[in-house]
Specification:
Layout (H helix, E strand, L loop, with lengths): L15 E5 L10 H4 L6 E3 L5 E3 H11 L4 E6 L4 H9 L4 H6 L2 H14 L2 E5 L6 H6 L2 H4 L4 E4 L3 E5 L5 H12 L2 E9 L7 E9 L3 E9 L3 H7 L9 E11 L3 H10 L12 H11 L1 E5 L2 E5 L3 H10 L4
Parallel strand pairs: 1-4, 1-6, 4-5, 8-12
Antiparallel strand pairs: 2-3, 6-11, 7-13, 8-11, 9-10, 9-11, 10-12
């Protein structure tokens, strides 16, 4: 196996994170008719109830991110601004315990790092990412799913793990986990060549929700069991070149079978043009975007 250079380049520090949160949450209907899925509550290890989006922002900050852009529908902008940026009404503040009064200030401080970005049309995950182009400008950035929360198996947060890999590899990074073949229908999948066995991969192809037949033929990774594949964990570090490929898809009206602009095909182009590193995250990912996984998150995330 060819060794990956592990020299940290301090000039490659990632400052910004993007969290798309403009979807309709159709898989959690009818609850999402009343509450945005990113605002669904979870209970953290300290026993504190917080919306999913807050846990995601905290994951970004734990990795050393300085600014977070949350991409939302214009009609939902006020919901996110009220939560992260509006101070509590004095009559409500007075009713809080001293601990929660202090925590309300923490929430305001967190909000000072957040920019709310508009997604003018609900046209897929790739389109939502593209809506952050002007805010990101020409910097590499951390991309996070708006309905996934994470817990690390080490003293280093999941976000920090892949940011560290970017600083060493100096190319886009996709976080990975191992999933069985029967789970491929709901995940992006990658293949490539190990640089460090079961840890760091030189990615050669990405495929969105492949069939098992396609994966067996094209997405095998050396050393893995026949029914096991490397799938996307939900965190990315991307160079701004990704916006060129997204813009090309939008201009050419290149949509998937649902009529949406997707990200994975553009990731595959980015991989082929600039190279891409995969990293098997030492941690767990919790999906809050489906009823049963959300229920399990409520049970498990409290105890991480």
């Amino acid at each position: 196996m060819q060794a990956l250079s592990l020299t940290v380049n301090s000039d490659k520090k990632i400052r910004k994170a993007v969290i798309p949160a403009g979807g309709f949450g159709t898989r959690l209907f009818p609850a999402t008719k009343a509450v945005k899925k990113e605002l669904f509550p979870i209970i953290d290890k300290d026993g504190r109830a917080k919306p999913v989006i807050m846990a995601i922002v905290e994951e970004a900050i734990s990795g050393g991110i300085e600014e977070v852009g949350i991409v939302v529908q214009p009609s939902d902008r006020g919901l996110f601004e009220d939560f992260f940026k509006a101070p509590l009404a004095p009559e409500l503040y007075k009713k809080l315990s001293p601990q929660n009064q202090e925590y309300s200030q923490y929430l305001q401080d967190l909000g000072s790092r957040i920019t709310i970005l508009n997604q003018d049309k609900p046209e897929g995950y790739g389109y939502a990412v593209f809506c952050a182009k002007e805010w990101v400008k020409d910097e590499p950035f951390l991309l996070m799913l708006g309905d996934h929360v994470y817990s690390s198996d080490t003293g280093t947060s999941c976000a920090r793990q892949i940011l560290d890999i970017y600083e060493k590899a100096n190319q886009s990074v996709v976080s990975l986990t191992t999933l069985p073949a029967e789970s491929l229908y709901k995940s992006g999948c990658v293949t490539g060549n190990w640089q460090e066995l079961n840890s760091i991969l030189s990615v050669t192809q990405l495929s969105e929700k492949p069939t098992i037949e396609y994966a067996l033929q094209h997405l095998r990774v050396e050393g893995m069991a026949e029914d096991q594949f490397l799938c996307i964990f939900g965190l990315y570090v991307l160079t701004p070149k990704i916006f060129d490929f997204l813009e090309e898809n939008i201009n050419n009206n290149t949509r998937d079978e649902k009529g949406e602009f997707q990200l994975t095909s553009c990731l595959d182009k980015l991989c082929k043009e600039e190279g891409m590193t995969g990293y098997v995250v030492k941690g767990k990912c919790y999906d809050t975007g489906l009823p049963d996984p959300y229920r399990q998150t409520m049970i498990d995330f409290r105890n991480v």
